[in-house]
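Protocol step 6 of 9: fold each sequence in the batch and record its structure tokens directly after the sequence line. For illustration, a two-sequence batch is reproduced in full.

Sequence one:
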Amino acid sequence: MLINNNYIDELKYSIGGENFKVNEYITVYSPYVYEVRDFGENLYHYVLSLFVRRPYDIAVELYDKDIDYQSVSDWDIFFETATKIPIELSCILFGKLNFTDFVPCLNNENGYKCLVNKHNNKICIDEVIYRKIVTFLRYIHFISEKVEYDVGNSMAKKFLIDRMRRKRNKLTNEFASGKKKSNSNISDMIKYCVNNSNFKYDYHSVMNMKLNLLYESYLFITHNNERDNIMSGIYHGTIDSTKMKDKSILNIIPDLHK
């Protein structure tokens, strides 16, 4: 179970690959690779973003609506958009739970906003429930809660927003002109892992892995390859380990959730 919204039973939900039962009404599914393949990788990542995105991730869109991304939370963003997510999209992560059946409400006991199912008022999503959902989704997809940059004044914030807008527009234009093509991150991970001697699956059997375990295998293998190179450098005297500021790369079992 999740404890204090920030702890995941790794053996059960990550390595074990179990779906996360939030309560008797809400279950968050941990998909297999073949399920994401059949659903569509790009569409899957889009649906995932609707649940795990931070205000920082859509800072440009919020700015254009005169909303300071630092003045709202990810719960605020989800609360405003959740009821617009059709079941055809959410089903990959939530099965038969239909978010369009929810309506925004205020809790009579504490005055906090929540989403209540109009067909069954026992099915409710408040901020506590949302935190459990998003913690699980971020965990199994190795998504950090941290933002790349955080600014403290309006001038710096305007500069950050302008830079993010230019970067987004540049990427959009490159895709439109054909200079940049969409790559399959999952396919790249599969190719890398399958062609590594430490990976025990082939191109066929890897489809029956839970997606989060593919992520974990890829991150673990890349960490160990980098670690082996650094250890070789230390052994041959080309790297001075006493001058390394961050020695976490030397860990045999890395912390993949940062």
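Sequence two, same batch, same settings:
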Amino acid sequence: MRSALRKRILVTGGAGFLGSHLCQRLLALGHDILCVDNFFTGSKDNVLPLLDNPHFELMRHDITFPLYVEVDEIYNLACPASPIHYQHDPVQTTKTSVHGAINMLGLAKRVKAKIFQASTSEVYGDPEIHPQSEEYWGHVNPIGRRSCYDEGKRCAETLFFDYHRQHSLRIKVARIFNTYGPNMHPDDGRVVSNFIVQALKGQPITLYGDGLQTRSFCYVTDMIDGFIKLMDSPDQCTGPVNLGNPGEFTIRQLAERIVALTGSASPLVYQPLPSDDPRQRRPDIAIARLALQWEPTVPLEEGLRATIPYFEDLLRRGLA
């Protein structure tokens, strides 16, 4: 007989970077996990250590198609999250955010499940205010190369709140800022993975623009803490809630720190800044601090020291 404290939890995109860490944490908390992924960017290697756990189930499925399962909670993480991957098939990216949200919200409505949406700081676009608070509506190009992701996630938020208002669905919306750690895809084009792989290979470190644009980097364990605290918060705490590390660094500072930590001799090289690339990105996490009692605890250097060995192992195995 299943314990009343053991929840049946669906994690879409569960074989991806964040999804695999979330599945591992939820298993450790004593829950039954259904991990769903179409493996476009997710990897079975990320969840390989979980496959022998009798409370873990892996299913290949694309959430742009309906899914009929019985669960208590849903974490909707499915969507390519790096420009290289989401621009590869922009129509499918929009479908994943919009059709996927409709299908998961429909499932949550049918089984009366609480549902979490992994939204993104990209809903703020190239922000005109700094740092970004949840009250800011954003500055987004609706027809640019990044729009499939930015506007797809914005539309998903709309759907979540309309389901909440119209059907009293219990929703949780998190706006995720730059996150890094083990299980990142080595070819995802994100700045942390790019720089680490280039440094370990002794290749030039590629910076775009003048390298003075800023980002805030949150280690993955801190982010997963935020997910769970938001999901477990009272129903009136729907979000959106910014989750990220408010520590702000220039891209050049990040590159210099990675070069130092890897002992690399890689030079820094500069290329033109891509269109619609934000100049600044830093979360205002006042709501997360107040409502969730959450804030990051892992400093950037500590997180990088924990991440670099993962990429060293990939390189040793010829996987990066």
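Proceed to step 7 once all outputs are recorded. Observation for sequence two: The longest helix spans residues 90-111.
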